[in-house]
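Case study B.
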Amino acid sequence: KNEVEQSPQNLTAQEGEFITINCSYSVGISALHWLQQHPGGGIVSLFMLSSGKKKHGRLIATINIQEKHSSLHITASHPRDSAVYICAAPPPQGAQKLVFGQGTRLTINP
Amino acid sequence: DAGVIQSPRHEVTEMGQEVTLRCKPISGHNSLFWYRQTMMRGLELLIYFNNNVPIDDSGMPEDRFSAKMPNASFSTLKIQPSEPRDSAVYFCASSGGILDEKLFFGSGTQLSVL
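Model:
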């Protein structure tokens, strides 16, 4: 089984700050997912990446396969970015059987 | 596309009753997943299907839980009999399959078993 750890568990910042959320996993993987869960409960897939970096708007995800570590960055954070961010990784033998981190609750104050 | 559609959005039932949750995946997606989310355990995979065939149900907590996918556009998760500890949010998600694994989630079913 893949163990997935996120840090920090909670993060509060001011609007405009640069945000970094970290994810570490214990077993080599083919790809890692970043999800966003809105205060209303809905879950959106932000990124799926297997190497390097991906960017979508103000969100950037990076992964270092050798170090078994991924980061999610938010530039120029905004109150609407307030959500729970969850990373998920599969075990080596089951690419679709994701193991989820406990989530990082992000609050951006105006 | 309307996305992944789950019903009902909320379900309140009494212990011992049968509960059926429904999911319609995105058209063309051939993988479907059922997840459960609780405060204590976070998100957990219960079962997933590829091309309507159950691939891994090791996450299904007990024999009280069962899932079916009779065709590519419909799946059910059934709990019989339900217990208070089954109270959680149940999410259905679909993806294009092994070669296209980005997940698309339904809005979830909030289940409360009294």
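The radius of gyration of chain B is 13 Å. The remaining cases will be described in the next quarterly update.
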